Amino acid sequence: MWGSIAEQIGGSHVIVTSIITSPTADPHLYESSAANAGAVAQADLVILNGAGYDTWLSQLVASTSRPRHDVLTVSHILHMAGAGANPHFWYDIPKIPTVAAAIAAALSSVDPRDAAAFHAGLRRFDMSLTPLDTAIAHIRNLDKGAPVAYTERLPAYLLAAAGLDNVSPIGFATSIEDGVDPSPADTAAMNALIIGHKIRVLLYNQQTVSSVTDHVRALATREGIAVVALTETLPHRYATYQSWQLAQITAIERALGR
């Protein structure tokens, strides 16, 4: 997702290598390779997500023999580097322009001659976010306060921006994100939300699945609760970050009955 944004801002003046590109693998379990180390060693700019999401990448940056890198860490840009921070910053649509501006500035730093092109790319990118902002505002205007739940924290920032009431058991979501089974109490609490029809939509990360999340999804389907599948990385069928996110926001809007 950050690679997509950098590519749009940089245009023909950049060559972007996105390391994690699989729309099915769990990024939390990613292990770097020699090819990744080589790509980092050759890069003029490295964009990290931060907040513990891609520690392997910061380790590659630290271990490379190249004397200097320009490194942009999204969590630092957003001042969200503290313990327990939700690292899924690309779902925080209102803050994406801040990250995009930082990317444009970083590109201008490593390639001052093309700074004007980067800033023009930034303006185009910012304008392209308007449909996303409009869709989020539409949900907020029509369904503010609607109760929803998720299997992990992936869409938390988006739900907050849309004014939806996330009632997910915290322990359930963090356990799934950490790759462990939730406690019986957290599982019971999630099941009760669904069986009691206390949520209008269940959102689940289809890249982080287990027998527990499969059960929750099946239970929601059985109970007639709308289910929206989300992905953690940019699927190949979408050309840009914006088209991907707009499709997901639209799916949430439809699930709410709009």
The poorly predicted ranges are: none
What is the CATH superfamily classification of the largest domain? Nitrogenase molybdenum iron protein domain
Number of beta strands: 6
Indicate the overall shape: globular
Beta fraction of the residues? Answer: 5-15%
- Return the structural class: alpha/beta
In sequence order, what are the helices and strands, one letter per element?
HHEHEHHHHEHEHHEHEH
Output mean pLDDT. 94
List keywords for this structure.
alpha/beta; 258 residues; Rossmann fold; 4-stranded parallel β-sheet; 12 helices; 9% strand; 6 strands; two-stranded parallel sheet
Please provide a written account of the structure.
The chain has 258 residues and is of the alpha/beta class. It folds into 2 domains: 2-128, Rossmann fold (3-Layer(aba) Sandwich), CATH 3.40.50; 131-255, Nitrogenase molybdenum iron protein domain (Rossmann fold, 3-Layer(aba) Sandwich), CATH 3.40.50. Helices cover 50% and strands 9% of the residues. The chain has helices spanning 2-10, 34-42, 55-63, 74-77, 96-110, 115-128, 130-143, 156-161, 170-178, 184-195, 211-222, 241-255, and strands spanning 45-48, 70-73, 147-150, 165-166, 201-205, 226-230. Strand 1 (45-48), helix 3 and strand 2 form a beta-alpha-beta unit. Helix 5 (96-110) runs antiparallel to helix 6 and helix 10 (184-195) packs parallel to helix 11 (211-222). The chain is globular. The two termini are 27 Å apart.
